[in-house]
User: Fold these one by one.
Assistant:
Number 1:
Amino acid sequence: MKIIKNAFILKSKKAQVFDILFDDKIIKIAKSIKVEPDIEVIDLHGKLLIPGCIDAHVHFNDPGFTDREDFTTGTTAAAFGGITTIIDMPCTSTPAVTNYENLHKKLNVISSKAIVDFALWGGIRKNDFPIDYKMIMKLWQSGVVGFKIYTISGMETFTALSYKDIENVFKKFPEILFAFHAEDESVINNSMNIFTNEQLKLPENYVKTRPVKAETTAVKKIISSVGKKNKVHFVHISSKNAAKLILESKEKFNVSFESCPQYLQFTSSDFPSLKGKLKTAPPVKFEEDKDYLRNCLKNGTLDFVTTDHAGCDYKKGKVFDDFSKVYNGIPGTELMIPYLFSEFYLKEKVSLKRMIELTSENAAKRYGLFPKKGSLQVGTDADFTIIDLSKPYLVDESDLHSIGKYSPFHETELACSIDKTVVRGNIVFDTEKGILQEPGYGKFISRS
């Protein structure tokens, strides 16, 4: 057993200093816990301790595309970033996680590589139509958190569904949670046709080829097919109008949405200077979009924040004069928590309760991992993210632990930093000592 002394935690709706007794689970939380012989003591001296943070949307590309990221580099970056659980997407690995057999092929490869705990997404793709009901239900019952669907896809191994397909899937699987990459393919194709090949090479034109209308059109059409029993989540929402449509639909349907640090901090006006370091799909939009999403974070209407972590080897994927050839994706899991607590907890004075909702609790609840993950309760996993609120962190992209050594936050000074990351009672990252657990320590967490 171990005791964490003098942890600044949220307790009874107030931030207070408490002690925590734990092994792999939380045993006791009290103002002062007596130290018995043979119990290791970790004194935080008032540092902030919150439920272990969750990054519920990452692409770690393992197996199959490990030149971009693998499960060891990805989960190492997560540990450095205070993330105790990641949820990996089904589409950027080979084979894609679209059936029970593929799930276990993936688990056989990644289980020996994980530093932190992980859950997995399943997926439904056009490649597998006509859809096999038993195949999908077997995968759902094996514990994936939900099923990812694309309305536009550049992946031959994970093709997009039509809106009619989506309507049929909703009717066929009312019990399953579906997550959508929502951009309308026809709007994007029509937008691209406006530009010459030379114009498409310019970074400032990228947002014009994937405009706000693409996101709002897809969101609107998906919502029009949602039934009373369906559960729908929209990933990486980047625009004001799409967020407003989702919030309006919450009055009738079980819908939720996430956004990412890039949409909360940058706009398309940053493309000429940041170029490939900011290129994602969907792209960052405009000042009104950024401001609206930041307000959603602050007022409680944004469900949670993820990274859509999708890095690559910078020299292979990001260094092109032709912006249309630049890889769509950035690493982010290492920086999300220090960014959010610097920008919103310390600077914008967002409450600690709200910050915990955004970084762990809401995602755990949405994906069936709560209270085992995302909470500080007796009997739950001893997963802790410990933040030094008085120690600034200057981002240097060359020090990132992903394969992708690039970030739009390069040379940004954040006001706080990760002190320790604790997973099931053991420190996996310490700011003084680095990574303290071997690959394979992280475990697969299935939806309850």
Number 2:
Amino acid sequence: MSYTYLLDLYKVLAARTADIDTTIKKAPQLSASQRQHLAGRRDCLESIHRFLEEHYDHKLPRRLQRQSHLGR
């Protein structure tokens, strides 16, 4: 896997996680089940991000390893 794909995945995961957080905070009309569903999606995205960091982050060049953690 090219490291640019990994960096793109980090960006997509961060953007989706931020969107879900914004939706949860700014939508008071959401029911409890909708909030729970969104929280589950956010947790899943965060676990995917952790998996990528644990298994593939060490394959990035060192300067990009530090940079990828700044986005979180």
Number 3:
Amino acid sequence: MKKSKNKLVKSRLKKSDTVKIISGNAKGTVGKILFIDRKNGRVIVEGVNLISRHTKPNQKNPQGGIIKREASINVSNVQLMCPKTNEPTRIGMEVITDETTGKKKRMRLSKKSGEILIS
């Protein structure tokens, strides 16, 4: 009997983050995250890992044919680009207290520049 794996992969990346591919065929390519699959630990990055999909004619696409689209890559193969230095950086967390309300908030922090990432 196969064990069910319900654990979600932890990642500090978010949709629409700019990332750099650090390994694989597209190494060195920079793109924007379109989708994060935390269940399988994969991300889809704009313009990276393109595959050709052969489609039959249907109502949406009456011509059919070959469609190029992005396939997912492992989340460990991407690294966030620091908006300040424009280089790949690790991500940390910092607890910041809001001065007006007094509430504590966890914010992402760029390890390279020390700047708080807002997105």
